[in-house]
User: Which sequence fits this backbone?
């Protein structure tokens, strides 16, 4: 009885795709296969995707189909390349920077993908850059170059100009600047009542423009370091800067084309840097740290509280809160250096007393040298008891040399050291703390390195030691750049909550008429605190004026500044900020005569930079309107409710404020901070709450009215849940989901509240310091751009001149080298040498007046002349390496072809056409190489070679492409699977079993045991001498057999049909 062999589905295709097993030998770097020989491992490492061909194309058999697949793949690769280019272009704009603007120097830091928080090195490879600008008629210098120019041209070199920002001409700091630097001529700006630098009649710059130059230079340093353009930045400012000074810095940044993400106080940036690197040490227990920062121009003492707080978005996160701030605007290292400079000037005058010489103080260049030497001596005296000050050729070619001791220096600055504890006491008073609550005092700033400063401070704080575990120079820059990364949308950093504090309180003042007696009306002046001292910011506030029905004015001024001394108040400037004139109030009342007025609401914003702004003023009205049940369908109400959950149906109050719950709670706390209790009580009686608290729930409405759907959703969104409300607020409790009784619902439906908001016109009159108009800002920005373009053009010309000079000298030297003499004739070298000598003479005689274009043209002309000589030398240098690589590739390709032809026919995956194509390419490459080498040998060395390195590379690419195609095909080919019966389990075949025995299943007829020898079908000859039909198991046609096999229970054999026997 014969049996039929069952073949698994797809076995024939698997047999055709079978391939010899490939073993990668990593140690030897080769790949071995059955009969393939040794092949370079790099062929398999570069495996699958060749853009020109694709991984498994069968080019010879279906060339048209392969071409279609190739075109589709090329289109896909082009799309991927386009997307990648867009991503790369986007990544080029991801970097952000920070600028720590100090009085004497600045530090710049960047964050970009792959470079977290790195200090930028300037052109001199230094981490600190002087804030110095030298302005001449035709050029500018910055940084160390400008600092060195201060000796040669002190009048054109501007330093320490930040103390002039936001100051009018009568400010004491302007007079102090004139006293310290008499070489600078300060002009008067009648429009803004400020000063400007007059270097020459043509060169006049405001302090904002000079600062804009410095910011632009800092951005160029950051862009060179990051190797990509940067526009976003966080800039540090002193904590004691008022509104006018902060606005001046923002205007300077606009002139420089810099987008300021935030003006961060330098003490806050230092505290953030300290906390970021000690995140693990912060817990729920509050830690009070004092930072004492004495820089070059000022001193700031800050008390910071660190602890973890719970947030809605990210759970427990670390937070720093500024608790107290004290400062001294003029106490710093600069004042010490000026005292020491004055001492050295006196010593020099004493040395020349009998020579009837001029006073050294009248010579600006000599005083600039003395100031630089005083800075050096002060630094040395911090570590030594005495030091010798010496300057060669101080004035009139007279050298200066004098010994200075630390005791003399401390005596000169004795009154300054007495002011060291002042900021500490101010900070403690503003924080309402004592020294026992301070855990540690940390030193920041370069001037804290003076031993006497540390001695006096340690005695003032009463601690065992002062903390020096922070980088005193770079902490602020690192904290600012961390904040820049947090504000940028391109980076995701670990949250660190920063709650800065308001140094100067801000209040609103207004006057209104009140009735005192019958027929007698008087004016009453009211003050309402808007932002209290040491209150956190950023935050928004809303003030409501309820007793006005016509246009009126109110004033925004600073609050109580009693904590400042008389001199500080003079330096502070105007205490009046802005007068706000409202227009359109009466018109809004006439527009809604039948509506109930809810007051005139003024929305204020104190942003992250500490800059106060008035966002808008609105006149709000309410009325009850009839609301029949048929007006709104169920779907409409559902849509309104859903939209309100996403901010579309909020109440007017929350929509106007636009503040978070935390900020609104802060507003409610500020209500009690009035100037006088009597005014507060009267204010409440008149129905004018000074600060509107939008986070509190609305008062209960009568039973006859009900809040609108939008107001219900807002109550839910603001978190005013029923469990937090009073039990008597039944109407509000129902609005949060409890259905009212049928009778009450009938009463509530007829009417609802409708709120109308009318925008009120606002005219602002700035009182402290007028801002630059848009036209003036545009002109200043254009002036800086022109200067930058001039500097770039000058730099480009210098580079062109340097390139031309370097090419001339290098080429003249090459003409005497053997490798160049070998490929050139004597006549050719003489011609090149003559042209080079003529160009060198022209550069020395006329090069100073030559333009950039002329220099580039001269360089291009010389390069064209020498191109043939250089080309012959370069080609000869490349020949050995290129020819060796070509020989190796030919040998490996030949070995691969031989191995492919030795694969048995049953396992062969390559077609004869493919192997013939590879053989043809190998033969053509061999022939081209031999012919080209023979032809090159006949040419003289002075002629253009016919054997070119680019031709060798092209031949290698063509040959490598053919081999790679076959390797990709071999790599993705799958071996033939072994078929097995689904309903029968069998033991593993013996090791010596043949492949045909392992790949087939024998089904026994009924009644025959497994031990019985099956009757095989007679072999039949296939027509044409082809392969026998029983060389592989047969495949059952149709799905009936498979379904019947699945239905058979386990352990039973399926019954065979008659035609299967």
Assistant:
């Amino acid at each position: 009885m014969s049996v039929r062999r069952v073949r698994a589905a797809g076995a024939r295709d698997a047999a055709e795709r079978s391939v010899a097993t490939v073993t990668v030998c990593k140690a030897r770097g080769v790949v071995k296969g059955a009969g393939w020989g040794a092949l370079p491992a790099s062929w398999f490492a570069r495996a699958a995707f060749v853009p020109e061909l694709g991984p498994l194309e069968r080019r010879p058999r279906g060339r048209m189909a392969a071409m279609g697949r190739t075109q589709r793949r090329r289109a896909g690769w082009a799309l991927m390349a386009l997307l990648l280019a867009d991503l790369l272009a986007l990544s080029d704009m991801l970097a952000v920077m920070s600028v720590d603007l100090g009085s004497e120097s600045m530090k710049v830091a960047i964050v970009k993908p792959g470079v977290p928080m790195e200090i930028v090195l300037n052109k001199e490879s230094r981490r600190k850059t002087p804030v110095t600008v030298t302005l001449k008629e035709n050029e500018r210098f910055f940084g160390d170059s400008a600092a060195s120019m201060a000796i040669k041209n002190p009048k054109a070199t501007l330093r320490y100009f930040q103390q002039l920002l936001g100051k009018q001409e009568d400010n004491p700091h302007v007079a102090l600047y004139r006293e310290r630097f008499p070489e600078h001529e300060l002009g008067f700006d009648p429009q803004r009542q400020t000063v400007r630098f007059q270097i020459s009649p043509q060169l006049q710059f405001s302090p904002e423009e000079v600062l804009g130059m410095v910011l632009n230079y800092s951005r160029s340093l950051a862009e060179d370091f990051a190797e990509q353009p940067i526009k976003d930045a966080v800039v540090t400012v002193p904590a004691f800067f008022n509104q006018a000074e902060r606005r001046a810095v923002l205007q300077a940044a606009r002139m420089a084309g810099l987008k300021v993400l935030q003006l961060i106080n330098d003490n806050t940036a230092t505290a953030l840097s300290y906390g970021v690197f000690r995140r693990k040490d912060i817990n729920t227990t509050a830690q009070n740290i004092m930072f004492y920062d004495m820089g070059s121009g000022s001193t700031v003492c800050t008390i910071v509280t660190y602890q973890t707080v719970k947030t809605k978005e990210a759970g427990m996160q670390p937070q720093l809160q500024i608790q107290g701030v004290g400062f001294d605007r003029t106490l710093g290292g600069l004042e010490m250096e000026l005292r020491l400079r004055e001492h050295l000037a006196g010593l020099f005058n004493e040395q020349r007393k009998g020579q009837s010489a001029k006073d050294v103080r009248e010579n600006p260049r000599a005083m600039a040298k003395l100031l630089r030497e005083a800075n050096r001596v002060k630094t040395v005296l911090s570590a030594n008891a005495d030091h010798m000050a010496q300057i060669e050729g101080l004035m009139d070619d007279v050298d200066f040399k004098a010994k200075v001791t630390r005791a003399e220096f401390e005596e000169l600055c004795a009154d300054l050291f007495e002011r060291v504890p002042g900021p500490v006491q101010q900070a403690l008073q503003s924080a309402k703390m004592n020294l026992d609550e301070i855990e540690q005092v940390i030193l920041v700033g370069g001037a804290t390195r003076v031993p006497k400063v540390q001695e006096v401070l340690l005695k003032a704080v009463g601690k065992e030691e002062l903390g020096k575990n922070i980088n005193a120079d770079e902490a602020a820059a690192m904290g600012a750049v961390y904040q820049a990364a947090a504000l940028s949308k391109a980076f995701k950093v670990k949250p660190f909550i920063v709650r800065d504090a308001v140094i100067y309180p801000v209040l609103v003042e207004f006057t209104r008429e009140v009735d005192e007696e019958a027929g007698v009306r008087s004016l009453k002046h009211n003050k309402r605190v808007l932002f209290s001292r040491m209150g956190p910011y950023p935050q928004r506030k809303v003030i409501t004026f309820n007793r006005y029905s016509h246009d009126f004015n109110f004033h925004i001024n600073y609050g109580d500044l009693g904590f400042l001394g008389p001199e500080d108040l003079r330096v502070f400037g105007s205490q009046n900020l802005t007068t706000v004139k409202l227009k359109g109030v009466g018109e809004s009342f006439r527009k809604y005569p039948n509506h109930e007025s809810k007051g005139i609401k003024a929305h204020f914003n104190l942003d992250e930079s500490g800059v106060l702004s008035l966002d808008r003023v609105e006149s709000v009205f309410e009325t009850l309107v009839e609301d029949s049940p048929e007006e709104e369908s169920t779907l409409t109400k559902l849509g309104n409710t859903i939209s309100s959950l996403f901010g579309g149906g909020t109440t007017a109050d929350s929509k106007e404020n636009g503040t978070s719950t935390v900020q609104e709670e802060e507003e409610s706390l500020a209500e009690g901070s009035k100037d006088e209790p009597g005014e507060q009580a009267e204010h409440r009686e008149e129905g004018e709450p000074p600060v509107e608290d939008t986070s509190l729930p609305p008062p209960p409405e009568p039973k006859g009215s009900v809040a609108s759907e939008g107001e219900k959703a807002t109550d839910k969104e603001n978190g005013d849940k029923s469990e937090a409300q009073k039990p008597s607020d039944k109407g509000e409790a129902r609005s949060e989901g409890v259905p009212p009784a049928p009778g009450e619902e009938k009463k509530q439906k007829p009417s609802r509240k409708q709120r109308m908001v009318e925008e009120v016109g606002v005219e602002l009159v700035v009182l402290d310091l007028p801002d630059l108009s848009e036209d003036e800002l545009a002109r200043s920005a254009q002036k800086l751009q022109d200067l930058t373009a001039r500097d770039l053009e000058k730099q480009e010309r210098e580079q062109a001149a340097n390139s031309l000079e370097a090419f001339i000298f290098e080429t003249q030297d090459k003409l005497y080298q053997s490798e160049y003499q070998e490929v050139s004739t004597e006549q050719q070298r003489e011609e090149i040498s003559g042209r080079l000598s003529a160009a060198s003479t022209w550069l020395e005689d006329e090069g100073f007046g030559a333009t950039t274009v002329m220099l580039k043209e001269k360089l291009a002309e010389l390069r064209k002349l020498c191109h043939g000589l250089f080309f012959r030398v370069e080609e000869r240098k490349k020949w050995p390496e290129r020819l060796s690589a070509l020989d190796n590739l030919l040998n490996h390709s030949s070995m691969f072809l031989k191995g492919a032809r030795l694969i048995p026919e049953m396992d062969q995956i390559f077609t004869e056409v493919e192997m013939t194509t590879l053989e043809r390419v190998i033969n053509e490459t061999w022939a081209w190489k031999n012919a080209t080498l023979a032809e090159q040998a006949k040419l003289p060395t002075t002629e253009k070679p016919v054997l070119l390195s680019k031709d060798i590379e092209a031949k290698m690419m063509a040959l490598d492409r053919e081999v790679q195609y076959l390797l990709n095909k071999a790599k993705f080919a799958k071996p033939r699977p072994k078929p097995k019966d689904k309903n029968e389990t069998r033991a593993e075949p013996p090791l010596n079993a043949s492949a045909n025995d392992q790949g087939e299943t024998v089904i026994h007829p009924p009644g025959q045991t497994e031990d019985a020898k099956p009757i095989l079908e007679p072999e039949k000859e296939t027509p044409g001498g082809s392969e026998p039909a029983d060389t592989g198991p047969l495949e059952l046609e149709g799905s009936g057999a498979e379904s019947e096999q699945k239905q058979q229970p386990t352990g039973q054999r399926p019954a065979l049909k008659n035609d299967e026997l």
Q: What stands out?
A: The radius of gyration is 43 Å. The CA atoms of residues 344 and 370 lie 7 Å apart.
